[in-house]
Amino acid sequence: MLRASPEQALPNPIPGGLDLLGNGHIFHVYLPGTAPELSTITDFNGALGATEVLGSWSGGGITPTADTPLVFDADMRFMAGEYIGTDGRHHQGTFAFV
Q: Could you tell me what percent of the chain has a pLDDT over 90?
C-alpha cells in the first residue's frame, strides 16, 4: 500500500494489470518477462531496478517435515525519480514493490 505525506500526492498507477486473486480486483503490476512494463507508476521518469528471485529448499521443522520440497518466488522492484501525482503536479519519490 502506498502512502504519501500531506504535501506529496500519490503516483498514478499504470493502466491495466493482473487479477491475482481471481476476484476482479486489478493489481497494477505485470509479472517480469510477461509485459513491456516493469514500473508500477505511470508518468514516471527515473531509475528502476527489478529482480525475480526463484529458489527451492527442503522443510526443516515439524510441519513441514525436513524432506518436504518447498519453493520460493519473489518479485522485487524499486523506483526512484520524478512522477506526476494524482494532483497533476510533478513530485520526487522512491517506491518499493515486494
A: 43
